[in-house]
Amino acid sequence: MNVTDGSVSKVFESSSGRDGMDVFLSDLPEAFVHRVKSRIGQIEEFIARGYFGPEDYRGKTVLDWEAGDCAFSVAFLALGAAEVFAIDSWTEQRNLPHGIHALNGFVFSQCSVGDWSKTRESSSEKDIEFIFSNTVTEHIDDLPRSFDALHRMLSKDGVYFNNHDNYFSPCGSHDHGFWYYGRDGYIECKSVECWKSEERCASSREHRRSLREGFPWTWPETSDLELTPDNCLNCRYFKRSQPWAHLQFVKEFPWLFNDPSFLSRRPGSSLNKVTPFQLVQLLSEAGFVVSLIDRSLVNNEPIPAALKYGISRLDLMTANVRTLCRREAKAGENA
Q1: Contact in structure between 215 and 191 (CB atoms under 8 Å)
Q2: CA–CA distance, 227 with 234 (Å, rounded to integer)
Q3: Cα atoms in the 13 Å half-sphere on the side-chain side of 111
Q4: Selection from 241, 258, 325, 320 nearest residue 45 by Cα
Q5: Phi first, then psi: what are they for 2, rounded to 5°?
Q6: Considering the entire predicted model, what is its pTM?
Q7: What angle do CA 278, 281, 285 make, to 5 degrees?
Q8: What is the pLDDT of residues 143-159, one digit of tens each?
Q9: Per-residue pLDDT tens over the stretch 56-89
Q10: How far is the C-alpha of 117 from the C-alpha of 158, rounded, in Å?
Q11: Which helix H or strand E contains 321, and what residues bound it?
């Protein structure tokens, strides 16, 4: 959904009577305000799809879990949330946009959701009424414990919306310098087909340079030293350029994806690789009532090499899994 400057300005002005919100936003960096407008567009798209409604966050206490640069947090404030607690395990206060702490109702903490929940539970503050997490849960190593913490904090009538980035999609490995969202619902390859060129490696030099600069953890300089122009089919660059490379070349995965962030449950790894089924199962085990499950599908047709390990065609075409959860008291717990 496209959001024009004019429509966004009206949203800001009507945001639950929040006096001076437009003034606060005007003090934020222009590039960040642009991101906030984009996030408002995404929230409005979620609403249009029936995932949740304005009544779930307007005038409510919101938790933005693993908030990153906090653009979603500010978007919810602009759309009428009473207060937004933005927590993130990695983002430091000093790296947040200048002026963001002046926003009325915005509170940031650098910590895990487990640590934040303990502090919250020891205080007299009311429960969280709306929890939001966007492309976060694929990065959390201990999902059961995190979901337990969210369940404890959510109010009796509260809701939790999660947008999960599926590992089994064409770009689920987060190798975004090679594969990323393109046109018409397709995940597109971003590499240069140097193996088809007479110049071989020279024709992909600029793309590899962009990888080193934009995604250095995915393509370190040492990878350029291991190119094999005389045997392109065994080259790391060629194989990473193939669809579902993280699945079809699983037997040589540690060599092909030569950074700890791509590995599973090891020091430095950043992806838990849970299946869509496991995600819903873990939410249910935490005590949530999963009232909505929706998949965002891509148009890429799964290849036989990705299907041979028993992964379903549906999972291979699922870019995101969206879930809406409500709180249910666990056995022995007061509702």
Answers
A1: no
A2: 9
A3: 13
A4: 320
A5: -85, 135
A6: 0.90
A7: 135
A8: 999 999 999 999 999 99
A9: 999 999 999 999 999 999 999 999 999 999 999 9
A10: 16
A11: strand 318-327
